[in-house]
Amino acid sequence: MASPESPASSASSGSSTSFNQNRPPTLENLVNHLVASKRSLNTQTVLWRANEIVSSARELLEENAVLLAKNASIRYIVDEQVDSLEAVRGGIDTVEAEVQSEFKQLLHHLDTSFAGLQSTLTVLRDTPIESVLQPPRTPQKHLFDFIDSATVTNLKDSLRACIDRYNEARSSLNDSNDTFDTSLDNLHSSIGNIPNTPATASNASLIPSLYHDLEGHAKEAAQAFQSLVRHYDLCVTALKHTEGGSAAATQATGDAPMSSGDDFSAPPEPITEEERQDMLAVLQKDSLEVEDVVSEIRDRGSEMSFLLSQIEDHISHLRAEDSALSNILRLLSLLAAQVKSHIATSRSFHASWLEDTRPALLNGIEEWENQREFYERFDLAYAELLVEIAARRKRHEKTKRKAEEAQRELDRLYAEDERAREAFTLVQGDFLPLDIWPGLRDAPRRYEVKALGLARVEEGEVGEEGEGEGVQSIPQLERNVVERAIGRVKRRI
Questions:
Q1: Spans of all domains in the chain
Q2: What range(s) does the Autophagy protein ATG17-like domain occupy (predicted)?
Q3: Which of 224, 287, 388, 454 is the least buried, fewest Cβ under 10 Å from its Cβ?
């Protein structure tokens, strides 16, 4: 809307002259313009509401900044805490996986060692003691009867108890991990249920933009209202310069003035007729725009209400996000307290592995291997014993033959010596006195080859007694027994 002082009014003065000449506004027209203009000033309530909207939006703008910063900070904290919790959970899994992997390897080695020992014990069970080595009429014995099987049984029971303790510790760890996983699932579910707020990096300036639009609408509405006020003042001035206008205006508008310029009792400032015609032309033109301006003010008021509702809705989302994030922080606090227990359970499991299970399994593997090696050596020693018995028997027989040969030679020398002495005595005995040498008439010294310490020999052999400790006989083994023993010794060496 133009005014008499505006460039628009000057530019339109030429055309308004012809308009006024053709259709000059009547007093009734001016009164109607005044009434319509006064009615348009009711849009002031829209301005009051606009001011309230801007004030509320300014407060929400400040709250928006606070909530954006707060929520972003809490989200960063939540992300860090979740990463830390996931790292702890992953660390527990790593410890468990490493322990379980080594446990399986050691258990495999343990089973392999035990299987080897069992195989060796089976050989001992199946290896009979040769009957010639045992006292007569005794039950058949095997190599297994000469070992302490309780050692194997006790170690097996000890290892089984150790493995049971490991399984109990791992079961406790699994229970703890299940609880931890459930808590993490609940946490992720709660984080996933946080309201999707438009406050993201891509539209973080949403509220400032809306607030800027609000201020623009408020400014435009205020300017539009000022044009309505100027139009009203122009209507009042026109009526004052029209005969009977003041009375008609007072009668039409009532006693309550709408502005400081509508006091019709005050005389108007004098103007020329040309100025009056220009004023009426502007008035006539502006009166056609009053309804449009009123509509514009109301539209801007409605738009401001809509924008405020958007801001309020956005803030409502931010508040809901803030509330949800606060709940997440409380959940994190509870979970952080529980994590101490989960870590303690993991440490207890690891300590039990390092201090109990692992040393016991390694010791069991070493013990199984040592026992297997010992019993294999026992089996080999028995085979070598059979070979040794055969060798001893052979050496015994050779020695016996040598002794018999020596005895025959000694007997021959004795007889020869005896014959020589008798011949000497026969020839020279009568000529030599007996006291010339006391041993002149002595018999030869007899020598005898005798086995010392032989208590008994095999059936069919003659036993001899002598000095020294008792020595048992050397049994005669069958040839196939000795050959099998030699074969076993060769395979083991």
A1: 7-354
A2: 40-432
A3: 388
